[in-house]
């Protein structure tokens, strides 16, 4: 079973938007699989989109988070820590279609929760508490919370984690719970810096820093022999020009591409195993870079109404104060084509 974390330690690159579109479309195209989104971002944006978008999605989210036992990541993590168990996913997940009929029936969500941020200090304390006979390695135990969740599910599931850009403990939990990473990257140079930082956070620097090198997530995970998920796909997001599969990476910043390829040359094991032969940068980009165009008004309407592009028609839609936002058939087709080109590269 694969579990994908959509992660980049940079905000606004499209993690939540991509989680929404990919998970819903993947579920549509794989009706026999059960798809679970775990929203480990306290902003809970992908949850709000999945639960119907706009004010409606926000209201639904608050209802789930406000239950006496929150039906959210906060509820799940609290029960796991308080009872030292692996809670049943059924007890905390929502069948998304029961709330938002436009969503496929095989899509499930453990929704995000603003209290995740308030919970972080307690999680940090829990991870650094003194070991005792029943709990010889609290750091590992806390960090493997979603590994245990994954192992509690059968092979018919595929998991998507949405993440927060800060490398806080809940982001570490998502990384540890994942087997693969999908990294949204924007077409600008600062993404080159982000890509470099991303590998330093996951695998540390060589040599490690004299002062803090032993305290990093990378050092702690490596000391325990924990498996770090591999980069499966870098997704160039919001590239306006969709140029077709042959030139899918044409708009991908050279600096970002060089940085990623350099990382691959130095440590190919940090990337998903690939069947093809990779001997040039072009081979590498074709294998590890996907592209999502800017969805334009179709994206705005999809987010506002919590509707996947596949369920939208050419029409005028009311969004906020604008009674008539136009979405054309061509725009929907191009958007869906782009989403499918990425979904087709997601293994169950
Ligand atoms: N492919 C896209 N087309 C159009 N708008 C997008 C696209 N990807 C992201 N956006 C917009 O960019 C903003 C940031 O995206 P978001 O998914 O919230 O990023 P993150 O989760 O990484 O912070 C949002 O307003 C979102 O609607
Ligand atoms: Mg987000």
Characterise this structure.
It is a single chain. The protein is of the alpha/beta class. It has a single domain, classed as P-loop containing nucleotide triphosphate hydrolases (Rossmann fold), CATH 3.40.50.300. It is built from 16 helices and 10 strands. It has helices at residues 15-29, 45-50, 54-65, 73-83, 89-92, 96-99, 115-127, 138-143, 145-151, 169-177, 190-203, 217-223, 254-266, 281-288, 296-305, 329-343, and strands spanning 3-6, 34-39, 94-95, 107-110, 157-162, 180-186, 230-239, 289-293, 315-319, 322-327. An 8-stranded mixed sheet has the order 3-4-2-5-1-6-7-8, with helices on both faces. It is globular and about 60 Å long. The N and C termini lie close together (7 Å). The structure holds adenosine-5'-diphosphate and magnesium ion. Magnesium ion (MG) is lined by residues 15-16, 41, 43, 45.
Question: How would the blueprint of this fold be written?
Answer:
Blueprint lengths: L2 E4 L8 H15 L4 E6 L5 H6 L3 H12 L7 H11 L5 H4 L1 E2 H4 L7 E4 L4 H13 L10 H6 L1 H7 L5 E6 L6 H9 L2 E7 L3 H14 L13 H7 L6 E10 L14 H13 L14 H8 E5 L2 H10 L9 E5 L2 E6 L1 H15 L5
Parallel strand pairs: 1-5, 1-6, 2-4, 2-5, 6-7, 7-8
Antiparallel strand pairs: 3-4, 9-10
Bound molecules: adenosine-5'-diphosphate (ADP) and magnesium ion.
The site of adenosine-5'-diphosphate (ADP) has 15 residues, from helix 1, strand 7 and helix 15.
Mean pLDDT: 92
Our count of helices gives 16
Helix content: 40-55%
How far apart the termini lie comes to 7 Å
Give the name of the CATH superfamily.
Answer: P-loop containing nucleotide triphosphate hydrolases
The gross shape turns out to be globular
């Amino acid at each position: 079973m694969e579990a994908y974390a959509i992660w980049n330690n940079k905000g606004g690159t499209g993690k939540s938007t991509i989680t929404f579109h990919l998970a819903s479309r993947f579920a549509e195209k794989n009706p026999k699989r059960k798809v679970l989104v775990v929203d480990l971002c306290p902003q809970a944006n992908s949850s709000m989109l999945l639960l119907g978008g706009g004010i409606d999605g926000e209201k639904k989210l608050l209802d789930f988070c406000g239950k006496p036992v929150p039906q959210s990541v906060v509820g799940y993590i609290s029960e796991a820590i308080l009872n030292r168990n692996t809670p049943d996913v059924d007890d905390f997940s929502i069948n998304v279609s029961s709330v938002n009929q436009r969503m496929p029936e095989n899509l499930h969500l453990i929704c995000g929760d603003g209290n995740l941020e308030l919970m972080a200090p307690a999680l940090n304390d829990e991870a650094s508490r003194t070991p005792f006979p029943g709990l010889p390695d609290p750091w590992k135990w806390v960090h493997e919370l979603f590994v245990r969740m994954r192992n509690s599910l059968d092979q018919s599931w595929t998991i998507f984690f949405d993440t927060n850009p800060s490398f806080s403990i809940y982001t570490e939990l998502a990384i540890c719970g994942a087997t693969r990473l999908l990294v949204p990257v924007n077409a600008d140079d600062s993404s080159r810096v982000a890509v470099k930082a991303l590998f330093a956070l996951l695998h540390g620097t060589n040599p490690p820093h004299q002062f803090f090198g032993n305290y990093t997530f990378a050092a702690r995970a490596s000391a325990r022999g924990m498996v770090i998920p591999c980069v499966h796909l870098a997704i160039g997001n919001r590239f306006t020009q969709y140029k077709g599969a042959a030139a899918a990476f044409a708009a991908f910043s050279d600096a970002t591409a060089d940085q990623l390829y350099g990382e691959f040359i130095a440590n190919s094991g940090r990337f998903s195993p690939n069947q093809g032969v990779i001997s040039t940068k072009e081979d590498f980009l074709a294998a590890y870079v996907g592209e999502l165009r800017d969805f334009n008004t179709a994206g705005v309407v999809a987010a506002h109404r919590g509707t996947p592009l596949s369920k939208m028609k050419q029409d005028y839609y009311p969004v906020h104060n604008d009674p008539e936002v136009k979405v054309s058939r061509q725009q929907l087709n191009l958007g869906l084509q782009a989403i499918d080109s990425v979904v087709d590269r997601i293994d169950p």
